[in-house]
Amino acid sequence: MPNLKISHNGGDVERKCRVTQRHLFQYVTKFYQHVLALVFAIKEINENPKILPNVSVGFQIYDSYLNARMTYHRTLDLLFKSHISVPNYNCDTRKNLVAVIGGLDEDISFHMADLLGLYKIPQLTYGSFAPEERDVTEFPPFYRMVPNEEVHQTTGLIDLLLHFRWTWVGLIIIDEDSGEHFLSTLEPLLSQNRICLASTGRIPSHMKWENAQELIGSVSQIYETFADHKSNTFILYGGSLTIMSLISVMVFDYMGDEERYGFRKVWIVTAQVDFALVTLQRMWNFNYLESILSFTIHSRDVAGFQNFLQNIRPGQMQGNGFLKDFWEQAFDCSFPNSQSPMASKKTCTGEEKLESLPHSVFEMPMTGHSYSIYNAVYALAHSLHAMSTHRSNHRIMVGSQRGETRELWPWQLHPFLQDIVFNNSAGERLSFNGKKEIRAAFDIMNLITFPNHSFLRVKVGTVDADALEGSQFNIQEEIIEWHTGFNKTVPNSVCNDFCHPGYQKTKREGEKFCCYDCDPCPDGKISNQNDMVDCVICPVDQYPSKDRDGCIFKSISFLSYDEPLGAALVSFIVSFSLITIFVLGIFIKWRETPIVKANNRDLTYTLLVSLLLCFLCSLLFLGQPWKVTCLLQQAAFGIIFSVAVSCLLAKTITVVVAFMAIKPGSKMRKWVGKRLTNSIVLFCSFIQSAICIIWLGTSPPFPDFDMQSLTEEIAAKCNEGSVTMFYTVLGYMGLLSIISLIVAFQARKLPDTFNEAKFITFSMLVFCSVWLSFVPAYLSTKGKYMVAVEIFSILASSAGLLGCIFPPKCYIMILRPELNNKEQLIWLIVSYVQ
């Protein structure tokens, strides 16, 4: 049978799974699972008759020693040595290399790619690191068995911080290029999402325990990141061994005082970091990292894998040169005649159980990295199978002779590998995207630690950029186990407590934007969410609440009959109307007396009726405005009041003309009579009516809502339509009143028994005073009080006319009837002429 070999050069894994005894010092035993996952996958393929029948797949493992020179050296060994030892087999066979799987860390992977890329040998990496660290387009044979770190993990990290509202976080990175690249990638994303880095610590890629001064410096530098106790969340980014270095730092300076250094933190760990300890560290306490959320490469349980692990015994796997070494360090025991420099006094029986080991030493469930290796082997096997089938079909088509073989070159595998689509034994469908990255996701795991130095991984979320919109990030917050110091509640990690509704954030000078003060919202604005940058103005139909944390709908306000002010005005309107009717009744009763006749009886009746209508038209301003009432309010008031003032003007002019007409030889006699008075009233009223008709025809008043003038109310009012026409109506009334005042003032010294000029003068002074005060008062008030001012002005001016002109006449008619006779009138006129 042909013998195809897959070389496993697993980057950092080789350092942990040393093949050569003389190089052995200490394993990271947990990573031995990576090798076992490779062995298990090849075992399944070789036993499956449906994949690569008549073909045996073998593998070789090479050690990089975490060193660039050794990585290049081992890669050259792989490429150019014609005979090498196979760790799993004691055989000497010709190498038929098809692909390389590795490595775990970034540097080793790219060192390997420098050489493998020259020969177009497929390289499948199973470690998670940023593709932009180096331009992977330089290495066409470079395939990734893990999702893109920046597309999946970094965005998932931001989503996780936003979900828990952690805006003040610390960062600890490995002190090498990959850590700096992660920092440069993460910082802009944090700023865009209003998240700040409270501090950044750097862990040396390799802790140097032999240099005490340098070690203390490293410890002090890392501990500076814990100084800010407001930062309860830390992001940990580094290589596979970073967790070992971090725990080493904590143990070195712990001194039994956990609160001193603030180990009560939430740790968000990236997928590059694995929770593994070497033998010397196995008794160290994972409780330093009690509250951990870890991004891990997505994995599933593979049927038969745990059973495979449970059945592993040192004597069962012949040709495995490092299984005994792994066994000794994992179980802290020694086999007879062991040459290990760290031999234990305890003797290994070979019957120890892997499942009894703490998870920091060895995990039984398949980890994400092991799952990636398992899928990488199957991806290569399916690609080889597809290429073999294609070749067989091609030989049949061209009529090749039976038994003819063609040599397999690694570069021929690329078209099949890149387009491969298959279902693995866990039921997942796998394929590569256009960037030669496997289509997969990251899992978010909660690590629950136990006093026996073990831990349990609980899946609490996923990050999948290829999922449907809205389901790319999922987290089950309720099943997360937090640090006991947080009292089982979600911890805060903010520079200061958030600003409550009713307040807005104000930047602190000289500090990061995540640190701010909370100032109350200014008048007229509200904030209804936590940490609002600026308070906002309520909609026009709403107003801020007392605490300025919400908007309340405004009530509709108008001057109604039911409220005290409206009821008081109605009572005044009714009272003045009844008084006017009473005065009109008196004048009608004494209509044949000289005092009534002397002052133009018809004009008096017209004046009293117009005053009565002025009082009653005030009722149009009360209640909710409607279209009809808005049309009638100003027009009716303007016309009726103009009639009243015109009557006063006509009365005054009539008195003046009458006294001028009685002089000998006067030519004014022809103007004495009803024709003059009627003409004055009709002409003056016609002008005001014409103004109102033009107003109503061009821009009539209409019902409106004033939402801005009042803070807590919407004022229902009549919009004048045309402010110019409104003030024209008022201005014309003012003109008539001024003319009446001037004429009455000139006639004030005429005989006063029946002369109204003096009273008209006083009434016009009252009228002008009221309306001159009305304009500023009207403009300075809002809502229903503006209507009240107008009603008051109408009542005051009308009452002024009624009170200044008619009481003296009523007094004579009722209480001094002896003065109400024709002889008295003639005597006064004669006296005036003499």
Automatic annotation (TrEMBL):
Q: Which residues form the G-protein coupled receptors family 3 profile domain?
A: 565-824
Q: Record keywords: DNA-binding included?
A: no
Xref: InterPro entries? ANF_lig-bd_rcpt (IPR001828), GPCR_3 (IPR000337), GPCR_3_9-Cys_dom (IPR011500), GPCR_3_9-Cys_sf (IPR038550), GPCR_3_C (IPR017978), GPCR_3_Ca_sens_rcpt-rel (IPR000068), GPCR_3_CS (IPR017979), GPCR_3_vmron_rcpt_2 (IPR004073)
- Entry's transmembrane regions: 565-590, 602-623, 635-659, 680-698, 725-747, 759-779, 785-806
Topology class, membrane: Multi-pass membrane protein
Q: Carries keyword Cell cycle?
A: no
Mind listing the UniProt keywords for this protein, alphabetically?
A: Cell membrane, G-protein coupled receptor, Glycoprotein, Membrane, Receptor, Signal, Transducer, Transmembrane, Transmembrane helix
Q: Where in the cell is it found?
A: Cell membrane
Q: Which PANTHER family match?
A: CALCIUM-SENSING RECEPTOR-RELATED (PTHR24061), G-PROTEIN COUPLED RECEPTORS FAMILY 3 PROFILE DOMAIN-CONTAINING PROTEIN (PTHR24061:SF599)
Quote the protein name from its UniProt record: Vomeronasal type-2 receptor 26-like
Native organism: Gekko japonicus
State the encoding gene.
Answer: LOC107109153
